[in-house]
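Thread amino acids onto this structure.
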């Protein structure tokens, strides 16, 4: 891994009491748009679900679904059968609430599960994940599990926070350490996915799109009806994020790959 914090993968308690406290999630949701906590919100999710290119009725797994935005879209707009998992209780509580508000109760399966413990085999036509694997140290184990869970010819698509090859500034190292992130470069993702057995792998550096989304989100922050201190804190966070991406240290990766039609166990 090009830049990893030392601890094992971030546990539920760390997520729920820190970055994904109930209050923080609601703040992020205001910036990214209802039911989303990842760059580009709804528009980006639609673009990426289209890229998954699944027929109506296909079965898809949303890994690290957060408060449900992509999973709900997959059901409502694309008529897919969705299993959505996340490790954070706070995320899932809010996802259940948003699911009910969208009139989708019972139509999307939401479950508390660590993606490193997915044990399903040959079950999914597609696996989709948005900005989750930065939390996962054991990436080889992760991609072995996802490969196993896909049906032959099934497609994996994810975006993730990535890093350059280094060296890194002290500021950047501190950011990674505070968040307990485990970042790799876009080309490391390409190699990891190929090693796991995926074919037709395309790992693209889409940092320019990340900067465009983040700049639009920064403008949104200025329009929100929120406490001035919260606005200042969010503005600082987003400006730092844009600066890290502009400096080249932080990258954004979009990765797709397909499980071959025939695999030998
Ligand atoms: C940046 S949020 C993105 C949420 C959602 N994918 C979206 O696009 O709105 C990252 C999510 O990954 C989840 N997560 C982190 N580690 C996980 C793990 N080991 N297994 C499942 N989910 C995990 C977090 O709880 C959080 O909901």
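Threaded sequence (265 positions):
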């Amino acid at each position: 891994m090009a830049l990893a914090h030392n601890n094992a993968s971030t546990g539920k308690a760390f997520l729920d009491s820190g970055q994904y406290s109930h209050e923080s999630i609601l703040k992020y949701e205001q910036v990214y748009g209802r039911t989303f906590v990842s760059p580009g919100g709804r528009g980006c999710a639609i673009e990426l679900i289209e890229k998954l290119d699944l027929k109506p009725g296909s079965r898809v797994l949303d890994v690290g679904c957060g408060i449900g935005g992509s999973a709900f879209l997959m059901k409502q707009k694309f008529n897919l059968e969705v299993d959505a998992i996340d490790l954070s209780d706070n995320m899932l509580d809010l996802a259940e609430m948003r699911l009910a508000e969208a009139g989708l109760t019972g139509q999307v399966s939401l479950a508390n599960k660590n993606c490193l413990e997915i044990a399903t085999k040959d079950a999914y036509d597609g696996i989709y994940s948005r900005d989750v694997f930065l939390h996962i140290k054991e990436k080889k184990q992760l991609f072995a599990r996802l490969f196993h869970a896909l049906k032959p010819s099934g497609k994996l698509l994810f975006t993730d926070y990535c890093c350059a090859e280094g060296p890194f500034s002290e500021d950047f190292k501190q950011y990674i350490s505070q968040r307990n992130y485990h970042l790799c470069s876009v080309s490391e993702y390409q190699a990891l996915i190929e090693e796991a057995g995926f074919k037709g792998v395309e790992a693209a550096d889409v940092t320019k799109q990340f900067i465009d989304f983040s700049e639009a989100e920064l403008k949104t922050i200025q329009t929100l009806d929120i406490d001035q201190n919260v606005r200042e804190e969010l503005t600082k966070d987003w400006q730092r994020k844009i600066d890290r991406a502009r400096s080249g240290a932080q990258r954004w990766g979009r990765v797709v790959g397909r499980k071959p039609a025939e695999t030998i166990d």
